[in-house]
Amino acid sequence: MTEIEAKRILKSIPVGSKLQIIMKNGDINDVVLGSHDTEAVEEKKYGTTVVPYLPPAIIVQGKRWGVYRLEIEEIVNIAQVG
Q: Which residues contact 69 (CB under 8 A, 6 or more apart)?
């Protein structure tokens, strides 16, 4: 999936909605949409500490994993279930 496709799907889904996200590896993730932000995060350097580049992703909240990012390029389909 591309970032443009993900934004098109997510713009009509309110934050806090339950989603099922189908991944390329066949996993189906039941999550809650945490944000409409899908932007990549550029690499940042803080002295000797380097925060790596993070590709475009959907921010979600899972049951036992808390809040995390699902990379858009690994997603096949997004469905709203609640």
A: 54, 57, 58, 59, 60
Strand pairing of 66-71 and 75-80? unpaired
Judge contact between 74 and 43, C-beta under 8 A.
no
Burial degree of 75 (CB within 10 A; 0-12, 13-18, 19+): buried
pTM: 0.83
Cβ–Cβ < 8 Å for 67, 34: yes
* Largest interatomic CA distance in the chain: 44
And the tokens for 17?
């909605």
Confidence at 62, pLDDT banded by 50, 70, 90: confident
